[in-house]
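pasting for ref. prot 1 ->
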Amino acid sequence: MSIVEQPSTSDGDDDDGTTVSTMADLIDTPAPRPHGRQGSRLQAVLEAESRAEIWTSPRRTLEPGDHLDQYLLVAVLARTAMGTTFKAHDTEAGKSVCLKVPRPELERNVVFYDRWLREERIGLRIDHPNVVRALQPRVKSRLYIVTAFLDGTSLRSLIAGGGLSRARSVDIARQLSEALVHLHACGIVHRDLKPENVIVTPDGTVKVIDFGIALDRKARRLTWTKFSKVGGTPDYMSPEQVGGRRGDERSDVYAVGVILYEMLTNHLPFTGDSWAVMRAKARDEPLPPTHFVPRLEAGLNAIVCKAIARGASQRHQSASQLLGDLLAGDCREPTADGTEELKRRPWIARAAAAVAVAALAGLVWLSRPIHETTAHASSRNNADLVHPGREPLTPPSTAQ
Protein backbone atom coordinates (compact mmCIF):
# COMPACT_ATOMS: atom_id res chain seq x y z
CA MET A 1 0.00 0.00 0.00
CA SER A 2 1.19 3.48 -0.66
CA ILE A 3 0.28 6.21 1.76
CA VAL A 4 -0.41 9.70 0.55
CA GLU A 5 -1.01 12.78 2.66
CA GLN A 6 -3.65 15.10 1.26
CA PRO A 7 -4.71 18.57 2.46
CA SER A 8 -7.70 18.55 4.76
CA THR A 9 -9.39 21.24 2.64
CA SER A 10 -10.02 18.83 -0.22
CA ASP A 11 -13.38 17.10 -0.27
CA GLY A 12 -11.85 13.94 -1.67
CA ASP A 13 -14.13 13.67 -4.71
CA ASP A 14 -11.15 13.91 -7.04
CA ASP A 15 -9.44 10.94 -5.44
CA ASP A 16 -8.63 8.24 -7.99
CA GLY A 17 -8.29 5.46 -5.42
CA THR A 18 -10.89 3.75 -3.29
CA THR A 19 -12.02 4.39 0.25
CA VAL A 20 -10.82 2.92 3.49
CA SER A 21 -11.98 -0.67 3.83
CA THR A 22 -13.45 -2.36 6.86
CA MET A 23 -11.84 -5.68 5.96
CA ALA A 24 -8.55 -6.53 7.61
CA ASP A 25 -7.33 -8.66 4.72
CA LEU A 26 -7.13 -5.57 2.54
CA ILE A 27 -4.06 -4.38 4.42
CA ASP A 28 -1.42 -5.22 1.86
CA THR A 29 2.20 -4.63 0.89
CA PRO A 30 3.25 -1.15 -0.28
CA ALA A 31 2.47 -0.25 -3.89
CA PRO A 32 3.38 2.87 -5.90
CA ARG A 33 0.80 5.61 -6.20
CA PRO A 34 -0.60 5.94 -9.75
CA HIS A 35 0.03 9.00 -11.91
CA GLY A 36 3.44 9.54 -10.33
CA ARG A 37 2.15 10.99 -7.05
CA GLN A 38 4.70 10.47 -4.29
CA GLY A 39 3.90 8.85 -0.96
CA SER A 40 5.17 9.67 2.51
CA ARG A 41 5.20 6.27 4.22
CA LEU A 42 8.39 6.84 6.19
CA GLN A 43 7.14 10.13 7.59
CA ALA A 44 3.82 8.57 8.61
CA VAL A 45 5.57 5.62 10.27
CA LEU A 46 7.88 7.88 12.24
CA GLU A 47 4.98 10.05 13.36
CA ALA A 48 2.96 7.03 14.46
CA GLU A 49 5.88 5.56 16.39
CA SER A 50 6.54 8.86 18.11
CA ARG A 51 2.91 9.15 19.20
CA ALA A 52 2.84 5.84 21.08
CA GLU A 53 5.23 3.00 21.79
CA ILE A 54 2.39 0.50 21.82
CA TRP A 55 2.41 0.55 18.01
CA THR A 56 5.41 -1.80 18.00
CA SER A 57 4.33 -3.98 20.93
CA PRO A 58 2.40 -7.21 20.25
CA ARG A 59 -0.63 -7.66 22.48
CA ARG A 60 -2.44 -10.75 23.61
CA THR A 61 -6.11 -11.32 22.88
CA LEU A 62 -8.39 -10.22 25.70
CA GLU A 63 -11.28 -12.22 27.10
CA PRO A 64 -14.09 -11.59 29.61
CA GLY A 65 -12.72 -11.54 33.13
CA ASP A 66 -9.55 -9.71 32.12
CA HIS A 67 -8.70 -6.23 33.39
CA LEU A 68 -7.68 -3.46 31.01
CA ASP A 69 -6.57 -0.37 32.89
CA GLN A 70 -9.57 0.76 34.97
CA TYR A 71 -12.00 -1.56 33.20
CA LEU A 72 -13.12 -5.10 33.99
CA LEU A 73 -14.21 -6.91 30.83
CA VAL A 74 -17.61 -8.45 31.47
CA ALA A 75 -18.89 -9.91 28.19
CA VAL A 76 -18.26 -9.99 24.46
CA LEU A 77 -20.82 -7.91 22.56
CA ALA A 78 -19.41 -8.43 19.05
CA ARG A 79 -16.39 -9.82 17.24
CA THR A 80 -15.43 -8.53 13.78
CA ALA A 81 -12.47 -8.70 11.43
CA MET A 82 -11.19 -5.52 13.05
CA GLY A 83 -11.53 -6.35 16.72
CA THR A 84 -13.80 -7.15 19.66
CA THR A 85 -16.36 -5.02 21.46
CA PHE A 86 -16.78 -5.76 25.16
CA LYS A 87 -19.25 -4.75 27.79
CA ALA A 88 -17.05 -3.63 30.67
CA HIS A 89 -17.32 -2.22 34.16
CA ASP A 90 -15.53 1.02 34.93
CA THR A 91 -14.13 0.31 38.40
CA GLU A 92 -13.46 4.00 39.05
CA ALA A 93 -16.75 5.49 37.83
CA GLY A 94 -18.82 2.48 38.91
CA LYS A 95 -20.77 2.19 35.65
CA SER A 96 -21.01 0.03 32.56
CA VAL A 97 -19.18 1.05 29.39
CA CYS A 98 -18.30 -0.39 26.00
CA LEU A 99 -14.69 -1.14 25.04
CA LYS A 100 -13.75 -1.52 21.40
CA VAL A 101 -10.39 -3.33 21.24
CA PRO A 102 -8.60 -3.96 17.92
CA ARG A 103 -7.02 -7.24 16.92
CA PRO A 104 -3.45 -7.25 18.23
CA GLU A 105 -1.84 -7.78 14.82
CA LEU A 106 -3.64 -4.75 13.38
CA GLU A 107 -2.18 -2.40 15.97
CA ARG A 108 1.16 -2.71 14.18
CA ASN A 109 -0.23 -1.28 10.93
CA VAL A 110 0.43 2.45 10.78
CA VAL A 111 -2.62 3.35 8.70
CA PHE A 112 -4.95 1.28 10.86
CA TYR A 113 -3.39 2.82 13.95
CA ASP A 114 -3.90 6.33 12.60
CA ARG A 115 -7.52 5.71 11.69
CA TRP A 116 -8.25 4.15 15.07
CA LEU A 117 -6.94 7.26 16.82
CA ARG A 118 -9.01 9.37 14.46
CA GLU A 119 -12.16 7.45 15.34
CA GLU A 120 -11.49 8.09 19.02
CA ARG A 121 -10.90 11.80 18.42
CA ILE A 122 -14.17 12.05 16.50
CA GLY A 123 -16.06 10.35 19.33
CA LEU A 124 -14.59 12.67 21.94
CA ARG A 125 -15.40 15.73 19.83
CA ILE A 126 -19.03 14.97 19.05
CA ASP A 127 -21.71 15.77 21.60
CA HIS A 128 -25.23 15.07 20.34
CA PRO A 129 -28.15 13.07 21.79
CA ASN A 130 -28.32 10.90 18.66
CA VAL A 131 -24.61 9.99 18.60
CA VAL A 132 -22.89 7.59 20.99
CA ARG A 133 -20.64 9.41 23.44
CA ALA A 134 -16.95 8.52 23.69
CA LEU A 135 -15.21 8.55 27.06
CA GLN A 136 -11.63 9.35 28.01
CA PRO A 137 -9.88 6.83 30.31
CA ARG A 138 -7.57 8.18 32.99
CA VAL A 139 -4.66 6.02 31.78
CA LYS A 140 -4.43 3.98 28.59
CA SER A 141 -1.92 1.15 28.23
CA ARG A 142 -2.87 0.04 24.73
CA LEU A 143 -5.08 0.93 21.80
CA TYR A 144 -8.85 0.85 22.47
CA ILE A 145 -11.92 3.10 22.43
CA VAL A 146 -14.32 3.60 25.33
CA THR A 147 -17.92 4.66 24.78
CA ALA A 148 -21.04 4.92 26.90
CA PHE A 149 -22.87 1.62 27.26
CA LEU A 150 -26.14 1.71 25.32
CA ASP A 151 -29.08 -0.23 26.70
CA GLY A 152 -30.97 -0.79 23.50
CA THR A 153 -31.53 -2.85 20.37
CA SER A 154 -29.80 -2.59 17.03
CA LEU A 155 -31.96 -1.28 14.22
CA ARG A 156 -31.06 -4.44 12.31
CA SER A 157 -32.84 -6.53 14.96
CA LEU A 158 -35.89 -4.27 14.88
CA ILE A 159 -36.14 -4.55 11.10
CA ALA A 160 -35.67 -8.32 11.19
CA GLY A 161 -38.40 -8.59 13.82
CA GLY A 162 -40.86 -6.69 11.65
CA GLY A 163 -43.64 -4.53 12.95
CA LEU A 164 -42.01 -1.13 12.43
CA SER A 165 -44.88 1.23 11.69
CA ARG A 166 -44.53 3.95 9.11
CA ALA A 167 -44.68 6.59 11.83
CA ARG A 168 -41.86 4.94 13.77
CA SER A 169 -39.81 4.40 10.62
CA VAL A 170 -40.08 8.08 9.74
CA ASP A 171 -39.19 9.07 13.30
CA ILE A 172 -36.03 6.91 13.21
CA ALA A 173 -35.05 8.45 9.87
CA ARG A 174 -35.70 11.91 11.31
CA GLN A 175 -33.40 11.25 14.27
CA LEU A 176 -30.71 9.88 11.96
CA SER A 177 -31.00 13.06 9.90
CA GLU A 178 -30.67 15.20 13.02
CA ALA A 179 -27.49 13.32 13.93
CA LEU A 180 -26.12 13.90 10.41
CA VAL A 181 -26.90 17.61 10.51
CA HIS A 182 -24.70 17.89 13.61
CA LEU A 183 -21.96 15.58 12.29
CA HIS A 184 -21.72 17.37 8.96
CA ALA A 185 -21.57 20.75 10.70
CA CYS A 186 -18.56 19.38 12.60
CA GLY A 187 -16.89 18.26 9.37
CA ILE A 188 -17.63 14.55 9.89
CA VAL A 189 -19.03 12.28 7.16
CA HIS A 190 -19.94 8.88 8.61
CA ARG A 191 -19.77 6.89 5.32
CA ASP A 192 -20.93 3.61 6.87
CA LEU A 193 -24.48 4.20 8.08
CA LYS A 194 -26.44 0.95 8.19
CA PRO A 195 -28.91 -0.71 10.60
CA GLU A 196 -26.05 -2.49 12.38
CA ASN A 197 -24.54 0.90 13.27
CA VAL A 198 -27.76 2.29 14.73
CA ILE A 199 -28.96 1.53 18.26
CA VAL A 200 -32.50 2.31 19.42
CA THR A 201 -32.92 2.71 23.18
CA PRO A 202 -36.08 1.62 25.05
CA ASP A 203 -37.44 5.18 25.01
CA GLY A 204 -37.08 5.34 21.20
CA THR A 205 -33.91 7.44 21.06
CA VAL A 206 -31.66 6.66 18.08
CA LYS A 207 -27.88 6.45 18.58
CA VAL A 208 -25.36 6.38 15.72
CA ILE A 209 -22.25 4.32 16.44
CA ASP A 210 -19.01 3.18 14.75
CA PHE A 211 -16.97 5.91 13.07
CA GLY A 212 -14.31 3.47 11.86
CA ILE A 213 -14.25 4.74 8.26
CA ALA A 214 -15.62 8.23 8.87
CA LEU A 215 -14.16 11.16 6.97
CA ASP A 216 -12.94 14.00 9.14
CA ARG A 217 -12.51 17.09 6.99
CA LYS A 218 -10.56 18.81 9.76
CA ALA A 219 -7.85 16.17 9.97
CA ARG A 220 -5.00 15.08 7.75
CA ARG A 221 -5.99 12.16 5.57
CA LEU A 222 -4.02 8.99 4.99
CA THR A 223 -5.19 6.88 2.08
CA TRP A 224 -3.92 3.80 0.34
CA THR A 225 -4.62 2.22 -3.02
CA LYS A 226 -4.71 -1.18 -4.71
CA PHE A 227 -7.72 -2.33 -2.71
CA SER A 228 -9.51 -5.53 -3.69
CA LYS A 229 -12.75 -4.06 -2.29
CA VAL A 230 -14.07 -0.63 -1.38
CA GLY A 231 -14.98 0.63 2.07
CA GLY A 232 -18.42 0.42 3.54
CA THR A 233 -21.34 -1.97 3.15
CA PRO A 234 -22.52 -2.32 -0.49
CA ASP A 235 -26.25 -2.31 0.31
CA TYR A 236 -25.99 1.13 1.93
CA MET A 237 -23.10 2.64 -0.03
CA SER A 238 -23.92 5.42 -2.44
CA PRO A 239 -23.28 4.90 -6.18
CA GLU A 240 -20.35 7.33 -6.06
CA GLN A 241 -18.73 5.28 -3.28
CA VAL A 242 -19.28 2.14 -5.33
CA GLY A 243 -17.49 3.95 -8.17
CA GLY A 244 -14.43 4.45 -5.98
CA ARG A 245 -14.93 7.96 -4.63
CA ARG A 246 -14.69 8.84 -0.98
CA GLY A 247 -18.27 10.02 -0.66
CA ASP A 248 -19.51 13.21 0.97
CA GLU A 249 -22.51 14.43 2.95
CA ARG A 250 -24.86 13.30 0.18
CA SER A 251 -23.55 9.75 0.60
CA ASP A 252 -24.81 9.79 4.19
CA VAL A 253 -28.16 11.11 2.93
CA TYR A 254 -28.28 8.16 0.53
CA ALA A 255 -27.66 5.71 3.39
CA VAL A 256 -30.50 7.18 5.46
CA GLY A 257 -32.76 6.90 2.42
CA VAL A 258 -31.90 3.21 1.98
CA ILE A 259 -32.47 2.55 5.68
CA LEU A 260 -35.88 4.25 5.51
CA TYR A 261 -36.68 2.29 2.35
CA GLU A 262 -35.87 -0.96 4.15
CA MET A 263 -37.90 -0.04 7.24
CA LEU A 264 -40.95 0.82 5.13
CA THR A 265 -40.84 -2.12 2.72
CA ASN A 266 -38.75 -4.86 4.38
CA HIS A 267 -36.77 -4.89 1.13
CA LEU A 268 -33.63 -3.22 -0.17
CA PRO A 269 -33.56 -1.17 -3.40
CA PHE A 270 -31.11 -3.66 -4.95
CA THR A 271 -30.66 -7.35 -4.16
CA GLY A 272 -28.06 -10.00 -4.89
CA ASP A 273 -24.50 -10.57 -3.79
CA SER A 274 -22.20 -7.66 -3.07
CA TRP A 275 -20.84 -7.37 -6.60
CA ALA A 276 -24.30 -7.62 -8.16
CA VAL A 277 -25.55 -4.83 -5.91
CA MET A 278 -22.55 -2.64 -6.72
CA ARG A 279 -22.98 -3.15 -10.47
CA ALA A 280 -26.70 -2.37 -10.27
CA LYS A 281 -26.06 0.81 -8.31
CA ALA A 282 -23.62 2.00 -10.93
CA ARG A 283 -26.06 1.68 -13.84
CA ASP A 284 -29.67 1.27 -12.68
CA GLU A 285 -32.26 3.40 -10.93
CA PRO A 286 -33.78 1.80 -7.80
CA LEU A 287 -37.36 0.58 -7.68
CA PRO A 288 -39.59 3.02 -5.76
CA PRO A 289 -40.87 1.89 -2.35
CA THR A 290 -44.40 1.76 -3.79
CA HIS A 291 -43.26 -1.22 -5.88
CA PHE A 292 -43.41 -3.23 -2.64
CA VAL A 293 -45.98 -1.15 -0.71
CA PRO A 294 -48.49 0.20 -3.28
CA ARG A 295 -50.52 2.09 -0.65
CA LEU A 296 -47.49 4.00 0.68
CA GLU A 297 -48.29 7.70 0.97
CA ALA A 298 -47.13 9.51 -2.17
CA GLY A 299 -45.23 12.24 -0.35
CA LEU A 300 -43.22 9.73 1.70
CA ASN A 301 -42.47 7.70 -1.42
CA ALA A 302 -41.16 10.85 -3.12
CA ILE A 303 -38.90 11.69 -0.15
CA VAL A 304 -37.30 8.23 -0.22
CA CYS A 305 -36.88 8.25 -4.01
CA LYS A 306 -35.12 11.60 -3.86
CA ALA A 307 -32.81 10.49 -1.04
CA ILE A 308 -31.66 7.38 -2.94
CA ALA A 309 -31.38 8.91 -6.40
CA ARG A 310 -28.42 7.48 -8.35
CA GLY A 311 -26.97 10.89 -9.11
CA ALA A 312 -25.72 12.78 -6.06
CA SER A 313 -26.88 16.09 -7.57
CA GLN A 314 -30.46 14.74 -7.74
CA ARG A 315 -30.64 13.95 -4.02
CA HIS A 316 -31.21 16.18 -1.04
CA GLN A 317 -28.03 18.23 -1.01
CA SER A 318 -27.76 18.18 2.76
CA ALA A 319 -29.07 16.30 5.76
CA SER A 320 -30.96 19.43 6.80
CA GLN A 321 -32.94 19.31 3.53
CA LEU A 322 -33.85 15.68 4.14
CA LEU A 323 -34.79 16.49 7.73
CA GLY A 324 -37.01 19.33 6.55
CA ASP A 325 -38.89 17.02 4.19
CA LEU A 326 -39.34 14.39 6.90
CA LEU A 327 -40.67 16.97 9.36
CA ALA A 328 -43.04 18.49 6.81
CA GLY A 329 -44.35 15.20 5.44
CA ASP A 330 -47.29 13.28 6.91
CA CYS A 331 -47.17 9.59 7.77
CA ARG A 332 -50.30 7.72 6.78
CA GLU A 333 -51.15 4.30 8.17
CA PRO A 334 -53.53 1.95 6.33
CA THR A 335 -56.62 1.02 8.37
CA ALA A 336 -58.64 -2.17 8.36
CA ASP A 337 -61.20 -0.83 5.88
CA GLY A 338 -58.52 0.02 3.35
CA THR A 339 -58.55 3.75 3.93
CA GLU A 340 -55.59 5.70 5.22
CA GLU A 341 -55.61 7.27 8.64
CA LEU A 342 -53.37 10.26 9.17
CA LYS A 343 -50.97 9.75 12.06
CA ARG A 344 -48.88 12.79 12.81
CA ARG A 345 -46.01 12.94 15.24
CA PRO A 346 -47.22 13.89 18.75
CA TRP A 347 -46.00 17.46 18.66
CA ILE A 348 -47.67 18.02 15.29
CA ALA A 349 -50.91 16.56 16.60
CA ARG A 350 -50.81 18.79 19.67
CA ALA A 351 -50.13 21.85 17.53
CA ALA A 352 -52.98 20.99 15.17
CA ALA A 353 -55.37 20.53 18.11
CA ALA A 354 -54.33 23.86 19.58
CA VAL A 355 -54.93 25.60 16.27
CA ALA A 356 -58.36 23.97 15.98
CA VAL A 357 -59.37 25.05 19.48
CA ALA A 358 -58.15 28.59 18.85
CA ALA A 359 -60.08 28.75 15.59
CA LEU A 360 -63.27 27.52 17.28
CA ALA A 361 -62.88 30.04 20.09
CA GLY A 362 -62.38 32.77 17.52
CA LEU A 363 -65.59 31.85 15.74
CA VAL A 364 -67.54 31.90 19.00
CA TRP A 365 -66.06 35.26 19.94
CA LEU A 366 -66.87 36.75 16.56
CA SER A 367 -70.43 35.43 16.62
CA ARG A 368 -71.35 36.83 20.05
CA PRO A 369 -70.87 40.54 19.32
CA ILE A 370 -72.93 40.22 16.17
CA HIS A 371 -75.98 38.82 18.01
CA GLU A 372 -75.63 41.22 20.91
CA THR A 373 -75.37 44.23 18.62
CA THR A 374 -78.42 43.11 16.68
CA ALA A 375 -80.40 42.64 19.88
CA HIS A 376 -79.54 46.12 21.17
CA ALA A 377 -80.36 47.69 17.84
CA SER A 378 -83.69 45.88 17.73
CA SER A 379 -84.64 46.95 21.23
CA ARG A 380 -84.01 50.57 20.27
CA ASN A 381 -86.28 50.17 17.29
CA ASN A 382 -88.80 47.72 18.73
CA ALA A 383 -91.53 48.90 16.40
CA ASP A 384 -89.90 46.70 13.81
CA LEU A 385 -89.52 43.74 16.17
CA VAL A 386 -92.12 41.06 15.55
CA HIS A 387 -92.54 38.20 18.02
CA PRO A 388 -94.00 34.98 16.67
CA GLY A 389 -97.76 34.79 17.37
CA ARG A 390 -97.91 38.32 18.75
CA GLU A 391 -98.69 41.76 17.40
CA PRO A 392 -95.86 44.20 16.86
CA LEU A 393 -94.95 46.07 20.02
CA THR A 394 -96.08 49.75 20.21
CA PRO A 395 -93.82 52.25 21.90
CA PRO A 396 -95.33 54.05 24.95
CA SER A 397 -97.33 57.19 24.20
CA THR A 398 -95.54 60.42 24.81
CA ALA A 399 -98.77 62.54 24.75
CA GLN A 400 -99.57 64.52 27.87
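and prot 2 ->
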Amino acid sequence: MPSTFNSKGVISFLRSSDRVSIYTWIAPVDWMAAATVAQCGINFAFCRISRARPDRLVPNDRAHAFAMNTRRWIVPTFACLIAVVAIVLRLYRLDTIPPGLQHDEVFHGHDAVTVLLGHPAIYFPSNAGNEPLYIYLTAGTIALLGKNPWGIRMAAVLCGLATVLFTGLWIRRAYNMRTALIASALVAVTFWPLFMSRVGLRSAALPRWRRRRHGCSGGRCRE
Protein backbone atom coordinates (compact mmCIF):
# COMPACT_ATOMS: atom_id res chain seq x y z
CA MET A 1 0.00 0.00 0.00
CA PRO A 2 1.59 3.38 -1.00
CA SER A 3 2.12 6.02 1.64
CA THR A 4 0.07 8.61 -0.33
CA PHE A 5 -3.37 7.50 -1.44
CA ASN A 6 -3.99 9.75 -4.46
CA SER A 7 -6.73 9.52 -7.11
CA LYS A 8 -4.65 7.28 -9.39
CA GLY A 9 -4.05 4.94 -6.49
CA VAL A 10 -7.79 4.79 -5.80
CA ILE A 11 -8.57 3.93 -9.44
CA SER A 12 -5.90 1.25 -9.65
CA PHE A 13 -7.01 -0.16 -6.30
CA LEU A 14 -10.64 -0.42 -7.44
CA ARG A 15 -9.54 -2.08 -10.67
CA SER A 16 -7.59 -4.72 -8.78
CA SER A 17 -8.95 -8.08 -7.69
CA ASP A 18 -9.56 -6.72 -4.17
CA ARG A 19 -12.73 -5.01 -5.38
CA VAL A 20 -14.59 -8.32 -5.01
CA SER A 21 -13.88 -8.53 -1.29
CA ILE A 22 -14.68 -4.82 -0.90
CA TYR A 23 -18.04 -5.29 -2.61
CA THR A 24 -18.78 -8.29 -0.41
CA TRP A 25 -18.29 -6.06 2.62
CA ILE A 26 -20.12 -3.01 1.29
CA ALA A 27 -23.13 -4.78 -0.29
CA PRO A 28 -24.95 -5.56 2.99
CA VAL A 29 -24.42 -1.95 4.08
CA ASP A 30 -25.97 -0.71 0.83
CA TRP A 31 -29.01 -2.94 1.23
CA MET A 32 -29.49 -1.91 4.86
CA ALA A 33 -29.29 1.76 3.83
CA ALA A 34 -31.96 1.16 1.19
CA ALA A 35 -34.13 -0.66 3.72
CA THR A 36 -33.77 2.24 6.18
CA VAL A 37 -34.84 4.73 3.51
CA ALA A 38 -37.88 2.58 2.66
CA GLN A 39 -38.83 2.32 6.33
CA CYS A 40 -38.51 6.08 6.83
CA GLY A 41 -40.68 6.72 3.77
CA ILE A 42 -43.45 4.43 5.00
CA ASN A 43 -43.32 5.94 8.50
CA PHE A 44 -43.46 9.47 7.08
CA ALA A 45 -46.45 8.68 4.88
CA PHE A 46 -48.42 7.08 7.68
CA CYS A 47 -47.59 9.90 10.08
CA ARG A 48 -48.82 12.49 7.61
CA ILE A 49 -52.06 10.60 7.14
CA SER A 50 -52.63 9.95 10.83
CA ARG A 51 -52.40 13.67 11.64
CA ALA A 52 -55.67 14.29 9.83
CA ARG A 53 -57.58 12.19 12.44
CA PRO A 54 -60.69 11.80 10.25
CA ASP A 55 -62.69 10.51 13.22
CA ARG A 56 -62.57 14.02 14.78
CA LEU A 57 -63.62 15.91 11.64
CA VAL A 58 -67.04 16.77 10.29
CA PRO A 59 -68.15 14.16 7.72
CA ASN A 60 -68.63 16.84 5.04
CA ASP A 61 -65.25 18.42 5.64
CA ARG A 62 -62.82 18.29 2.72
CA ALA A 63 -60.01 17.22 5.03
CA HIS A 64 -62.10 14.24 6.14
CA ALA A 65 -62.75 13.22 2.54
CA PHE A 66 -59.10 13.63 1.62
CA ALA A 67 -57.97 11.57 4.61
CA MET A 68 -60.43 8.79 3.84
CA ASN A 69 -59.45 8.69 0.16
CA THR A 70 -55.78 8.71 1.08
CA ARG A 71 -56.24 5.79 3.45
CA ARG A 72 -57.84 3.82 0.64
CA TRP A 73 -54.92 4.11 -1.76
CA ILE A 74 -51.87 4.45 0.47
CA VAL A 75 -51.71 0.78 1.50
CA PRO A 76 -52.24 -0.65 -2.03
CA THR A 77 -49.71 1.84 -3.40
CA PHE A 78 -46.99 0.88 -0.94
CA ALA A 79 -47.82 -2.82 -1.34
CA CYS A 80 -47.50 -2.58 -5.13
CA LEU A 81 -44.27 -0.60 -4.80
CA ILE A 82 -42.77 -3.22 -2.48
CA ALA A 83 -43.88 -5.99 -4.86
CA VAL A 84 -42.35 -4.27 -7.90
CA VAL A 85 -39.05 -3.62 -6.10
CA ALA A 86 -38.91 -7.22 -4.85
CA ILE A 87 -39.59 -8.62 -8.32
CA VAL A 88 -37.07 -6.39 -10.09
CA LEU A 89 -34.29 -7.06 -7.58
CA ARG A 90 -34.84 -10.82 -7.84
CA LEU A 91 -35.10 -11.04 -11.63
CA TYR A 92 -32.48 -8.54 -12.79
CA ARG A 93 -29.71 -10.52 -14.55
CA LEU A 94 -30.70 -13.64 -12.68
CA ASP A 95 -28.63 -15.85 -14.96
CA THR A 96 -25.37 -13.97 -14.29
CA ILE A 97 -25.68 -12.59 -10.74
CA PRO A 98 -24.33 -14.38 -8.78
CA PRO A 99 -22.01 -15.65 -11.54
CA GLY A 100 -22.04 -19.35 -12.34
CA LEU A 101 -24.08 -22.16 -10.86
CA GLN A 102 -23.07 -23.43 -7.45
CA HIS A 103 -22.71 -27.21 -7.18
CA ASP A 104 -25.82 -27.55 -4.99
CA GLU A 105 -27.82 -25.73 -7.65
CA VAL A 106 -26.56 -28.21 -10.23
CA PHE A 107 -27.64 -31.14 -8.05
CA HIS A 108 -31.12 -29.65 -7.67
CA GLY A 109 -31.31 -29.14 -11.41
CA HIS A 110 -30.19 -32.72 -12.00
CA ASP A 111 -32.88 -34.09 -9.67
CA ALA A 112 -35.50 -31.89 -11.32
CA VAL A 113 -34.54 -33.16 -14.77
CA THR A 114 -34.87 -36.78 -13.56
CA VAL A 115 -38.44 -35.94 -12.55
CA LEU A 116 -39.11 -34.51 -16.02
CA LEU A 117 -37.66 -37.68 -17.58
CA GLY A 118 -40.27 -39.76 -15.78
CA HIS A 119 -38.54 -40.77 -12.55
CA PRO A 120 -40.49 -39.15 -9.70
CA ALA A 121 -39.55 -39.81 -6.10
CA ILE A 122 -40.44 -38.76 -2.58
CA TYR A 123 -36.77 -38.56 -1.58
CA PHE A 124 -33.75 -37.79 -3.72
CA PRO A 125 -30.52 -39.36 -2.38
CA SER A 126 -28.09 -37.28 -4.44
CA ASN A 127 -25.96 -34.64 -2.70
CA ALA A 128 -26.56 -36.08 0.81
CA GLY A 129 -30.33 -36.26 0.23
CA ASN A 130 -33.07 -33.78 -0.63
CA GLU A 131 -36.77 -33.58 0.17
CA PRO A 132 -39.09 -33.49 -2.87
CA LEU A 133 -41.01 -30.21 -2.58
CA TYR A 134 -38.35 -27.85 -3.91
CA ILE A 135 -37.21 -30.41 -6.50
CA TYR A 136 -40.70 -30.61 -8.00
CA LEU A 137 -41.00 -26.84 -8.00
CA THR A 138 -37.66 -26.62 -9.81
CA ALA A 139 -38.86 -29.25 -12.28
CA GLY A 140 -41.82 -27.01 -13.10
CA THR A 141 -39.66 -23.94 -13.68
CA ILE A 142 -37.20 -25.92 -15.82
CA ALA A 143 -40.10 -27.26 -17.89
CA LEU A 144 -41.24 -23.68 -18.49
CA LEU A 145 -37.90 -21.88 -18.92
CA GLY A 146 -35.54 -24.64 -20.06
CA LYS A 147 -32.37 -26.25 -18.76
CA ASN A 148 -30.52 -23.06 -17.95
CA PRO A 149 -29.80 -20.83 -14.93
CA TRP A 150 -33.18 -19.14 -15.30
CA GLY A 151 -34.99 -22.45 -15.01
CA ILE A 152 -32.91 -23.60 -12.03
CA ARG A 153 -33.09 -20.32 -10.08
CA MET A 154 -36.68 -19.30 -10.81
CA ALA A 155 -37.98 -21.65 -8.11
CA ALA A 156 -35.95 -19.74 -5.51
CA VAL A 157 -37.30 -16.45 -6.89
CA LEU A 158 -40.87 -17.66 -6.44
CA CYS A 159 -40.13 -18.79 -2.90
CA GLY A 160 -38.49 -15.45 -2.11
CA LEU A 161 -41.49 -13.50 -3.39
CA ALA A 162 -43.80 -15.75 -1.39
CA THR A 163 -41.68 -15.00 1.68
CA VAL A 164 -42.24 -11.26 1.18
CA LEU A 165 -45.99 -11.85 0.85
CA PHE A 166 -46.38 -14.17 3.83
CA THR A 167 -44.21 -11.92 5.99
CA GLY A 168 -46.60 -9.06 5.35
CA LEU A 169 -49.69 -11.18 6.05
CA TRP A 170 -48.19 -12.61 9.22
CA ILE A 171 -47.05 -9.27 10.65
CA ARG A 172 -50.37 -7.62 9.75
CA ARG A 173 -52.26 -10.17 11.84
CA ALA A 174 -49.78 -9.97 14.69
CA TYR A 175 -49.39 -6.16 14.80
CA ASN A 176 -50.78 -3.72 12.22
CA MET A 177 -50.64 -2.76 8.56
CA ARG A 178 -47.83 -0.21 8.90
CA THR A 179 -45.57 -2.71 10.63
CA ALA A 180 -46.46 -5.29 7.98
CA LEU A 181 -45.43 -2.96 5.16
CA ILE A 182 -42.16 -2.12 6.90
CA ALA A 183 -41.39 -5.82 7.47
CA SER A 184 -42.21 -6.69 3.86
CA ALA A 185 -40.02 -3.85 2.60
CA LEU A 186 -37.12 -5.04 4.74
CA VAL A 187 -37.46 -8.61 3.47
CA ALA A 188 -37.72 -7.33 -0.10
CA VAL A 189 -34.47 -5.33 -0.10
CA THR A 190 -32.14 -6.65 2.62
CA PHE A 191 -29.10 -8.62 1.55
CA TRP A 192 -29.60 -12.20 2.72
CA PRO A 193 -33.29 -12.64 1.80
CA LEU A 194 -32.46 -11.19 -1.61
CA PHE A 195 -29.36 -13.34 -2.05
CA MET A 196 -31.16 -16.56 -1.12
CA SER A 197 -33.89 -15.66 -3.62
CA ARG A 198 -31.33 -15.53 -6.45
CA VAL A 199 -29.65 -18.91 -5.96
CA GLY A 200 -31.36 -22.21 -6.70
CA LEU A 201 -31.15 -23.71 -3.22
CA ARG A 202 -34.00 -25.34 -1.35
CA SER A 203 -33.29 -23.22 1.74
CA ALA A 204 -35.13 -20.39 -0.06
CA ALA A 205 -38.40 -22.23 0.64
CA LEU A 206 -37.87 -22.52 4.41
CA PRO A 207 -38.86 -18.97 5.53
CA ARG A 208 -42.04 -19.12 3.47
CA TRP A 209 -43.33 -22.29 5.06
CA ARG A 210 -42.35 -21.25 8.58
CA ARG A 211 -44.42 -18.08 8.17
CA ARG A 212 -47.25 -20.02 6.57
CA ARG A 213 -47.40 -22.41 9.55
CA HIS A 214 -47.81 -19.61 12.08
CA GLY A 215 -51.33 -19.02 13.34
CA CYS A 216 -52.08 -15.51 14.58
CA SER A 217 -55.08 -14.40 16.61
CA GLY A 218 -55.83 -11.69 19.09
CA GLY A 219 -52.65 -9.77 18.24
CA ARG A 220 -50.46 -12.73 19.17
CA CYS A 221 -48.90 -15.46 17.10
CA ARG A 222 -48.51 -19.09 17.94
CA GLU A 223 -46.66 -21.79 16.07
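Residues 1-26, 215-220 have pLDDT under 50 and may be disordered.
Residues 19-50 form the longest helix (32 residues).
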